[in-house]
Amino acid sequence: YLFGPIKIVSSILIQLATLSLTGVLTSIEFGKLALIISVSQFAFVFTNGWTNGLMTNLGMQSHSRGENFLKFFFYRLIILLITYFPIFLLANVFKEELSIFLGIQNALILVLKMHLALLIYDMSSSLLYVKSKYLIMSLIDLTYGIILFLGVKQNVSSIEDYIEILLRLNLFYSFLCMMIFFFKIPRKYYLMSWVGLKSSLEYSAWQGLSILSIYLVNLGGLVLLRYFDIPFEEIGSFNLAFRFYSVFSLVFAASGLLV
To answer: Where are the alpha helices (DSSP H) in the chain?
Structure first.
């Protein structure tokens, strides 16, 4: 019974942490940060986002049947390593264009850091659900939300500060989740196979279409706004309105649980 409410509260705190940036960033900076997140999320879709279902679906099913669920984590890791380097090289080739598009001189470094923060968080955020440790995972998420909110309120004065805090917090979050996840896993579960990797790729390819669609609906619009030369401050206002919508959606979801 506690899992749902705790998860909603932690999600609200994460959104509020982003909203609180409006107190320290200008509307132009807030717009640029929104674009950095959007571009990083786009890269994330093609590196890790499309394989998310391996753990949350196939991994959980294998665990419930007492079968090897750990292999799906390693399949995701292998796919991530294979897909990350083309994205990394592409970003370096177009680093000047990226800086112009985002209006920031060190855009490449900021995008790569944000992308890394997203990857680290995503690789860890569903691990304990696979082992049916729902309450522990939700409490970790709640702690994460509280630390992020307080960290932003007290220590952020620039875009660089926010991305740095997010990356460090995600590293700690990932370390904690993996310590719990890998505790007492039988050695036989560390076995993998080429057939398993191939089937995981085939499964994830179809999932990628839905993940890309979700991205386009939620964050793709920001890139389009910039493409059509909409000012950064207006992009920031659009992002602020979207964040408010996200918070209210979570509040309404919490109200539904209470009813």
So the answer is: 3-19, 27-47, 53, 60-64, 70-93, 95-102, 107-125, 127-130, 134-155, 159-181, 194-218, 220-227, 232-258
Q: What is the pLDDT of residue 254?
A: 59
Picking from 162, 44, 40, 28, the residue whose alpha carbon sits closest to that of residue 107 is 40
pTM greater than the 0.70 cutoff: yes
Share the mean pLDDT of the chain: 88
Distance of alpha carbon 118 from alpha carbon 170, whole angstroms: 8
Q: Where are the alpha helices (DSSP H) in 126-193?
A: 127-130, 134-155, 159-181
Residue with tokens 């917090």: 169
Asked if 162 contacts 22 with a C-beta cutoff of 8 angstroms, the reply is: no
- Residues 6 or more apart whose CB falls under 8 angstroms from that of 192 comprise 71, 74, 75
What does the DSSP 8-state code read for residue 164? H
Q: Which amino acid is at 151?
A: G
Contact 99, 107 (CB under 8 A): yes
